[in-house]
Amino acid sequence: xxxxxxxxxxxxxxxxxxxxxxxxxxxxxxxxxxxxxxxxxxxxxxxxxxxxxxxxxxxxxxxxxxxxxxxxxxxxxxxxxxxxxxxxxxxxxxxxxxxxxxxxxxxxxxxxxxxxxxxxxxxxxxxxxxxxxxxxxxxxxxxxxxxxxxxxxxxxxxxxxxxxxxxxxxxxxxxxxxxxxxxxxxxxxxxxxxxxxxxxxxxxxxxxxxxxxxxxxxxxxxxxxxxxxxxxxxxxxxxxxxxxxxxxxxxxxxxxxxxxxxxxxxxxxxxxxxxxxxxxxxxxxxxxxxxxxxxxxxxxxxxxxxxxxxxxxxxxxxxxxxxxxxxxxxxxxxxxxxxxxxxxxxxxxxxxxxxxxxxxxxxxxxxxxxxxxxxxxxxxxxxxxxxxxxxxxxxxxxxxxxxxxxxxxxxxxxxxxxxxxxxxxxxxxxxxxxxxxxxxxxxxxxxxxxxxxxxxxxxxxxxxxxxxxxxxxxxxxxxxxxxxxxxxxxxxxxxxxxxxxxxxxxxxxxxxxxxxxxxxxxxxxxxxxxxxxxxxxxxxxxxxxxxxxxxxxxxxxxxxxxxxxxxxxxxxxxxxxxxxxxxxxxxxxxxxxxxxxxxxxxxxxxxxxxxxxxxxxxxxxxxxxxxxxxxxxxxxxxxxxxxxxxxxxxxxxxxxxxxxxxxxxxxxxxxxxxxxxxxxxxxxxxxxxxxxxxxxxxxxxxxxxxxxxxxxxxxxxxxxxxxxxxxxxxxxxxxxxxxxxxxxxxxxxxxxxxxxxxxxxxxxxxxxxxxxxxxxxxxxxxxxxxxxxxxxxxxxxxxxxxxxxxxxxxxxxxxxx
Length: 817
Hints:
Layout: H1 2-14, H2 27-33, E1 40-43, E2 49-56, H3 61-64, E3 69-71, E4 74-77, E5 82-83, E6 88-96, E7 102-104, E8 112-113, E9 117-118, E10 124-130, E11 135-141, E12 147-149, E13 163-165, E14 172-176, H4 218-228, E15 229-236, E16 239-254, E17 260-266, E18 281-287, E19 292-299, E20 314-319, E21 326-332, E22 346-352, E23 358-363, E24 366-372, E25 378-385, E26 390-397, E27 406-412, E28 422-423, E29 425-427, E30 433-435, E31 437-438, E32 441-446, E33 457-462, E34 469-473, E35 479-487, E36 491-497, E37 504-513, E38 524-530, E39 545-552, E40 558-565, E41 575-581, E42 584-586, H5 589-592, H6 612-615, E43 619-624, E44 627-629, H7 639-656, E45 660-670, H8 672-683, E46 689-693, H9 717-722, E47 736-741, H10 751-763, E48 768-773, H11 783-802
Parallel strand pairs: 41-43, 41-45, 42-44, 45-46, 46-47, 47-48
Antiparallel strand pairs: 1-2, 2-6, 3-4, 4-5, 6-7, 8-10, 9-10, 10-11, 11-12, 13-14, 14-15, 15-16, 16-17, 17-18, 18-19, 20-21, 21-22, 22-23, 24-25, 25-26, 26-27, 28-32, 29-30, 31-32, 32-33, 33-34, 35-36, 36-37, 37-38, 39-40, 40-43
Helix pairs in contact: 7-8
């Protein structure tokens, strides 16, 4: 008895909690994290100019510590009535294409900038600037970069869309904070009554949400009204004109003809178990002056929506881009249940204002969007089959309803190699976005996935033949992708990078048909010249070597990883190794084995990247393939067996290459990758230690589906239990570092998941460490948090992987326990 008591006391001493200051990684890594970032292009709609935006990836922790209200699924900063955003743009420059100088945009140096909202002509762009007290509106001149603040306007971005150019492209439609609204409603000192929730029997299971971000009291509902209520205004030549009455306004969209506005108005009663996009909504059409003309739909509170399903009734209203005032929307034909066996899941309706609705098309599977093609009534309508992982796109003509739709694409969305790309859009003079037509053809851009890695391409597809012709494909030494047409059909800007060169803008000029067009490399020749010359901000990363490695799982499924090796690596040296992965589910084994990597990309890092391990002397198997193959309904029944087989294949290949010491391998992952990590430690002996970040480890706490598992706990109890490493904590006999953001907003990965896994491993006497990052969400963005996470990860694997004592021969790595 005495021995047992002493053991328990020692266990409690070993697991005692402590507050520690933020740690910093080695200087070489800290310098990389704190280096300036290469700007990101934001081209104008007509390709005459581009804004280069430099983001602040890692704001200080003080930003995250600002006040925050969590209301109806929205996180609000009450000081400025802004969204509680973690990252933002710090500065902008603007450049006239192709050869204009790059000029700074004169915006406040201490403001948190939103993206550039271009007008259709590319002469001006609007920018929101978040300050300590509000969200301001600025308008910048594209030729000079000179920006002016619009006085008297406080933008209200709480429910999404907030700023857009009106069809005249001279004035802006803006959601603003109502003037003279007074102070927020005070919190009652005495509760008005108990909180009561009630549920009646429904036909299908519905997903659940994290209650901490939802409304919890009538006072919360009043606060939501206060901060979400907007006054719509028109801003023109410095004049601000109110449009209609204030209200809790969701999406607002001006009709292409300029005479009408589509408004989603959120109304009570609100829900205490659903976010605001499930609240009752009245879809209205207003005049441009704000008078209500029509109520298109009145949708009730959507408390019960089937898993992966849709709310019943009209949804996804939008204007037809190629008509002055015609609405298009979808309606479910399956009760909102995407998995119900019915001939058609959705119908798409079309209706001119003041006219009668007509059915445009009925989709066999769930409606996935419509893109209108300029110059006609033609449109591309897409549908998606979640069960089979399939998507189809049809070409139809809304002005010729008797004509049969033509099938354009019909493919598995898991098949990256067969991805035809997405149509390139352009803005009409009204500002409406349409599929760009050049000489009777549309153009498609794609990542160009291939067995050798991504090679982006640009295709031309004539609308009469629908047979694609290759215009351009990135070569094998760089990663170059389409950005915008500069002179449609002739010149276009690209973003080009290579293992040694950071992303920079280039100008491509198409020539005639290539002599080797039959090879499939390119259908046209092209010339290239540089438009920008940004230097390498992190030269230390260039000392890391990178290589795409392909191999096979024991059952023949092809796999891959990107291998990173330390600076000055000597071939044949066996290194401690980190396997970083994220599991994905597939219905087709051939798609499961496709390469998802870009070996010709410029090596860069974001956040607490596993690539930092290479600078610390590790081999890193980054993006190691973790496919889970099987029918979508039952694939997770073999999740454990498949991720163990995937991990063993990766380690075996790295050992075969001579870079990995099989006795010193660690595994790490984030979110679903964290679940994978904990399960690999529980069900295999392949690894010496693991790092699990922001994961979910007890699926009985999320009984209505997780990741792509659509069955409920009550339909697949054995699978839920087997995939819950918390319930198998006694099998986790390798050290596990658990990291989580204290304010994780992701419904499936609430911080409680990590806290309970830590308690379970500690309770059975395992080795574990729990790091809860203050103010962080599902990912980690504050500089202090990112640097601390990197330091924790390096220290953990240095102790339990790099410096691990050799295992006994009877404990050699195996594929299972």
